[in-house]
Design brief:
This protein has 90 residues and is mainly alpha-helical. It has one domain. Helix content is 91%, strand content 0%.
Length: 90
């Protein structure tokens, strides 16, 4: 591979890592907001949401799932970037 292609690949990977970090941060913020919203609702409604999995609880479960996927993707991409960086430093 030429040096230009390697630098382009590293740049694209860094941009991808930054995008993933922003997505993870946005999901974490959304989870916090929904948890606060759920905590402010009446206790009976909280219990019903938990049992029947609807409303805020359903959204929270979906966002937690997406957050888990994005976090794993970020971890894999970050590991890949570090390996790539180490290979081309040597």
């Amino acid at each position: 591979m030429s040096t230009a292609k390697i630098e382009l690949s590293q740049t694209q990977l860094l941009i991808g890592l930054d995008t993933l970090k922003k997505e993870v941060f946005a999901l974490e913020t959304e989870i916090t907001d929904l948890e606060q919203q759920n905590a402010q609702s009446p206790m009976l409604l909280q219990i019903l949401r938990k049992w029947l999995v609807f409303g805020t609880i359903k959204k929270l479960e979906w966002i937690r799932f997406k957050l888990k996927l994005k976090t794993e993707e970020l971890l894999v991409s970050n590991t890949h970037y570090k390996k790539l960086k180490k290979i081309f430093k040597d």
